[in-house]
Amino acid sequence: MAKMWAGRTAGITDKIADDFNSSISFDSRMYRQDITGSMAHAAMLANQGIITREDADTLIAGLETILQDLDSGALAIDLDCEDIHMFVEQVLTERLGDVGKKLHTARSRNDQVALDIRMYLRDQVDEISDLLKDLTSVVTAKAEEYKATIMPGYTHLQRAQPITFGHHLMAYAMMFLRDLDRLADCRKRMNQSPIGCCALAGTTYETDRYFEAKELGFDSICLNSLDGVSDRDFCVELMSAISVAMMHLSRFSEEIILWSSWEFKFVELSDAYTTGSSIMPQKKNPDMAELVRGKTGRVYGDLMALLTTLKGLPLAYNKDMQEDKESIFDACDTIKMCLKVFVGMVDTLKAIPENMMKAAQQGFINATDLADYLVKKGLPFRAAYKISGSIVAYCIQNNKVLESMTLEEYQEFSDIFQQDVYEDISLEACVSKRISVGGTSVESVEMQIKYVNEVLGR
């Protein structure tokens, strides 16, 4: 089959070269953006007197029919075409004759594909953002449910200080809000129209790029034609934002995996989000969380692939840039799938408060509060720290915890200790006293929940 770009060459390529060169197997998903962009282009050409209004109306009607036929399945995408742009133009020309050939006036496939991918990714950002908002809402609701449930907080995966499960969950809600901010920033820079940049140098026709940009929902236009067709930094930025979000999901997954193990048994996952073993009947595996953790590496690979592709390309367009689509499409598909499963997994997750409390009662996680007790009585912190450390060592040697020591034992280390020490080192007090903004007290967690809900508008 001769190509629509035949002229300088015969337009006939080897079948293997055709398959290697073709992108329609993956860029066909942008057919809606391609057709919508072409409608705006036809309208602009008529407004500028470059083609007649009658021809523009014919082109737009023809494009609308193609879109309807593709949506309904009445028209199948021909995978023998080189790309989605050539397919749409070919079908339009077959249906309209010579009028169809006028559509490509004052544009190139270079600015056309740059337009399509910006429009497509703009929609993807909106979809991903909506899913992130759903997950953040679910996490926040779960935090509300467990805002007073005491558990150990960890550093170095060692029990450190008592916190609430709600406080721990809200840490992820805050991460997801920043992920939403990154996506919004990325969308803003992405939303510049490249159409009218043509192949690289603009066009001799007196076009109205601002009209097309406005018609297609762009904030402004790319002001340098070379830049408009040859950079994909908006793809890199989106994949970077997706990678950070996936990193947050992966960390959350790792904790869910730990918490649901028999060693922790802090949470119980719904059967709907776990699998069994083919040989060990007792197993309930957190496969969904593990897959999210694994797919994070896949998204990182997508980002590195595109960065590597772009790093040595001279201006302007090079065929290497065709490699942008599979990477960015995969990253978008992957995070959307992960977010969808995460929403359900977290929503159906149930905490086991008694196990969390039992773990919190071990490991001397109220030792800092013991030191603070001495500081409030007038002792310098470093002196208080040393005394508290000595008491912990004594408890370990004598198989005790801080709460089980007698007042007489305490006073062997310092006569400052009085009966009120027991109130100060209770886990409930340790949590409720964390009154600083952002802390783990119930009141603080409630403030965090209120803030997140206000940001989400929910």
What descriptive keywords fit this protein?
single chain; 458 residues; mainly alpha; Fumarase C, Chain B, domain 1; Fumarase C, Chain A, domain 2; Ribonucleotide Reductase Protein R1, domain 1
Explain this structure:
Helices cover 61% and strands 5% of the residues. The chain has 3 domains: 15-105, Orthogonal Bundle (Fumarase C, Chain B, domain 1), CATH 1.10.275.10; 120-141 and 165-190 and 229-355, Fumarase/aspartase (Central domain) (Fumarase C, Chain A, domain 2); 367-425, Fumarase/aspartase (C-terminal domain) (Ribonucleotide Reductase Protein R1, domain 1). It has a two-stranded antiparallel ribbon with strand order 1-2. A two-stranded parallel ribbon has the order 3-4. It has 19 helices and 6 strands. With 458 residues, it is mainly alpha-helical. The relative contact order is 0.10. It has helices at residues 15-21, 24-27, 31-47, 53-72, 84-96, 109-145, 165-190, 209-215, 225-230, 233-259, 287-310, 324-347, 353-360, 367-376, 381-397, 407-413, 421-424, 427-432, 442-456, and strands spanning 150-155, 158-164, 192-193, 220-221, 267-268, 350-351. The mean pLDDT is 94. The longest helix has 37 residues, at 109-145. Strand 1 and strand 2 form a beta hairpin. The protein is elongated, with a radius of gyration of 31 Å. Helix 14 (367-376) crosses helix 15.
